[in-house]
Amino acid sequence: MTAKTPKLNYKGPVYEKTATGEVVPYASASATAAQASAQPEAGVATGGAAASTTTTTTAAGEPSEESAPELLVPGSLARYVNGLAAAPESAPAAVQEIIWAGNHLIGLPYIYGGGHNPTFSSPGYDCSGTVSYALHGADLLSAPLDSGEFESWGAVGEGRWVTIFTNAGHAYMTVAGLRLDTSAADDPSNEQGPRWRPLRQSNAGFVVRHPAGL
């Protein structure tokens, strides 16, 4: 999959990792396939899809870490399923955890400075707060970083599974073929806030980093 892939809809088998670690067919897979076939081909995240996810928040408006199902799909590419990202079964566990953590933020608003606290919790997230939260979900980050700090974090260049694009003003990440970003650039849905989106046509102007080993 490249940054110019025209569509990311997915209609294949979807599984769910249960609380006991068992992998079972996703109960909503049939409804997911029907919804995916009705969505615009060029888009990834749409208002209707995001609204149908199971993501919820706590009483304080913060993401609930038990709200989104841990979805899995065959192969090595993450897929967009019913408003959430499904992790590829062949990906390392850390990559899967990044994806599932990112799903907790879907539907929350963009808030400047959101997520930049010791607990990573917030009623909304900014760009680097979103990246920080997802990495923290895989125990790869112990404290949130801003976009400038990400310029020297991890290893240089693109990763096999995870790549962070960052500069002084913005940060986003790609994970197994999907982009986690607060910016709607190159996303026909034009939805704001943290969510999964198509890969950008160009990543010019950004420092490229990745978690070592991923």
Describe this structure as you would to a colleague.
The strands form 2 sheets. A 6-stranded antiparallel beta sheet has the order 6-11-7-8-9-10. A 5-stranded mixed beta sheet has the order 2-1-3-5-4. The radius of gyration is 16 Å and the shape is globular. The protein is built from 5 helices and 11 strands. Helix 3 crosses helix 4. A hairpin with a 2-residue loop joins strand 4 and strand 5. The protein has one domain: endopeptidase fold (from Nostoc punctiforme). By secondary structure, the protein is an alpha+beta fold. The chain starts with 14 loop residues before the first strand and ends with a strand.
CATH top level is Alpha Beta
Shape: globular
Low-pLDDT segments, ≥5 res = 1-6, 29-56
Radius of gyration using CA atoms only: 16 Å
Beta-strand residue percentage: 15-25%
List the helices and strands and how they pair.
Blueprint: E1 15-17, E2 23-25, H1 29-38, H2 47-51, E3 70-73, E4 79-81, E5 84-88, H3 93-103, H4 127-137, H5 147-150, E6 155-156, E7 162-166, E8 171-175, E9 178-181, E10 195-197, E11 207-210
Parallel strand pairs: 3-5
Antiparallel strand pairs: 1-2, 1-3, 4-5, 6-11, 7-8, 7-11, 8-9, 9-10
Helix pairs in contact: 3-4
